[in-house]
Write a structure and sequence with these properties.
Layout: E1 28-29, E2 36-37, E3 65-72, E4 76-82, E5 88-94, H1 101-120, E6 129-135, E7 138-143, E8 148-150, H2 151-158, H3 163-182, E9 185-186, E10 195-198, E11 204-206, E12 213-214, H4 242-258, H5 273-276, H6 282-291, H7 303-314, H8 334-343, H9 380-417, H10 419-425, H11 429-432, E13 444-457, H12 463-482, E14 487-488, E15 495-507, E16 510-523
Antiparallel strand pairs: 1-2, 3-4, 4-5, 5-7, 6-7, 8-10, 9-12, 10-11, 13-16, 14-16, 15-16
Length: 524
């Protein structure tokens, strides 16, 4: 199975923000021997092989060169590459190692189907595919280069992911799967290594659609494709439905929340997540149990239903303290002045002024100046009622104090007699402290404007997709200029300045847009 597209250990560089960033290139690699060459070479100085891709039987105007190898696997490799304008792409190569003609035909058909499928998809969490071509017997496709690391690497580093963070990412994955299922597609390979977390925004990208296929519920018997540990039982029989993606996402979340790797345990064995990690909420643990049911019909009816069960924790955005631009003194309420006047004896209080209707606005009234009115002396009946109310309030206060003391005493007695039982029931202090106690408690908030951002989108991309791409570009520019700790304030999302994005041209069937974006950012 082809390894996932990664950018391991690559931090964002200062970039000119386009859909594909531009970089300075010091050397390129030969696609055959992988040895370095000068940036503008046409043939490898070591083996003589042509180093320019998509010039044998070109599918579009782009020409590519490889900068480095990201990963290699049994079915292919993924490179970081550039086109003739130094825009960065992920270049995916399929290794044609089949010896049987029928097997070769099946593998090539699957690869071509992947390329054609991805070129039709338009979703902000799916890398955009730009080219699909064959060059000197090798098969390539090029797509957005995602700077970040995959969830598998993050789990390996941290062992477990905090529930709230895991559910925020799960919500984004569900968003992609809903889009795919709505278009008659099943992803069939949800697993941590196929979930990329972008360095710039912390958002999810679902990558490696090598085994996605058009959904055919009537199909019986197909290629047994999937990743052991994450694939559901029915996929081993060649069957895949949206319920299969629900299972695989459940397995992925179980791994992330518990640290228990399903590939290192017996197949289809997932103990309740809360039994492995007591910090997981009962609701999430029960949801994963349902998603991981052996029988597809016993799982959630749709990815939207699964998403709804995971969303209560994921949908609460982290609140960022916003520093006010300026402090204004508020006028003192007139009631305070009136109270002061009441405390002063007035020998000759003036009678109330009559309320006169306003001449300029019929139906409204002009309020008279606020003055102190004489307070009537309470009657004996009223004084008696107030006395009883005070006595009743004092009696209730004493009862409350006695009850509180009794509860505290009982708790102390139980703790002294049964300390171990109490420790098992009450979580330790470490469990309730934040994951990052050294995180800054205050942030400096300011406006940030990114002028003339450019993105490239599909002709049928809607306004929300275009806006999402501009926000990603805005985030990358803010963090490249001010540091990776910059946070885009979720309370005030970035907005366009000077109107909606302008269409400024076309490129290989895609539409290029330009806009100025402004928002609030928070810097520790």
């Amino acid at each position: 199975m082809m390894q996932s597209m990664h950018s391991v250990g690559v931090m964002p560089q200062p970039l000119k923000i386009n859909m594909n960033a531009t970089v300075e290139v010091e050397q390129i690699l030969c696609p055959k021997c992988h040895k370095p060459n000068v940036p503008r070479a046409h043939f490898c100085q070591h083996c003589g092989h042509d180093v320019v891709l998509n010039n044998d039987a070109p599918s579009d105007k782009r020409r590519y060169r490889i900068m480095r190898v990201i990963k290699q696997g049994g079915q292919g490799a993924v490179y970081e590459g550039i086109d003739q304008h130094n825009h960065v792409y992920a270049i995916k190569e399929m290794l044609d190692l089949a010896t049987d003609p029928r097997e070769r035909s099946e593998v090539l058909q699957r690869f071509n189907a992947e390329a054609e499928l991805l070129q039709k998809l338009s979703h902000p969490r799916i890398p955009r595919v730009y080219s699909h071509f064959t060059d000197e017997g090798k098969h390539y496709l090029t797509m957005d280069f995602v700077r970040g690391e995959d969830l598998d690497q993050i789990i390996e580093r941290h062992t477990t992911i905090p529930e709230r963070q895991a559910l925020e990412w799960a919500d984004q994955i569900c968003d992609v799967l809903e889009y795919l299922h709505g278009n008659g597609l099943v992803y069939r390979d949800v697993k941590p290594s196929n979930i990329m977390i972008k360095h710039s925004s912390g958002n999810v990208k679902l990558i490696d659609f090598g085994i996605a296929k058009v959904l055919n519920p009537a199909e019986r018997g197909g290629t047994q494709i999937g990743t052991p540990g994450y694939a559901p039982p029915e996929q081993y029989q060649g069957l895949a439905t949206p319920a299969s993606d629900i299972y695989a996402l459940g397995a992925t979340l179980h791994h992330a929340l518990t640290g228990r790797d399903p590939t290192e345990n017996p197949p289809f064995s997932f103990p309740p997540a809360r039994n492995v990690n007591i910090n997981i909420s009962r609701r999430t643990s029960d949801s994963l149990e349902k998603a991981l049911h052996m029988q597809p019909e016993q799982r959630f009816g749709s990815i939207a239903e699964f998403r709804a069960m995971l969303r209560p924790l994921a949908s609460q955005p982290t609140q960022v303290r916003v520093a006010p631009a300026q402090t204004a003194a508020l006028p003192q309420p007139q009631v305070a002045a009136a109270s002061a006047t009441v405390s002063q004896p007035a020998p000759n209080p003036a009678p109330p002024h009559p309320v006169k209707p306003s001449a300029s606005k019929p139906g409204t009234t002009t309020q008279p100046p606020l003055t102190a009115a004489p307070q009537p002396r309470p009657t004996p009946t009223a004084r008696s009622a107030r006395t009883k109310q005070r006595r009743r309030g004092g009696w209730l206060a004493w009862v409350s104090v006695l009850v509180l003391l009794a509860v505290i005493g009982a708790g102390a007695f139980v703790y002294i007699q049964y300390p171990e039982a109490v420790r098992q029931i009450i979580p330790s202090i470490e469990q309730v402290l934040p994951d990052n106690p050294t995180a800054p408690t205050s942030l400096h908030t300011q406006t940030f404007t990114a002028e003339n951002l450019e993105i490239v989108a599909a002709p049928d991309a809607d306004a929300n997709t275009i806006r999402s791409q501009f926000i990603d570009a805005y985030t990358e520019q803010a963090q490249s200029q001010l540091g990776t700790d910059v946070i885009i304030n979720p309370n005030f999302p970035p907005t366009y300045v000077g109107g909606e994005p302008q269409r400024i041209g076309e490129e290989n069937g895609l539409i290029r847009y330009q806009a100025t974006v402004q928002g609030y950012i928070s810097v520790p």
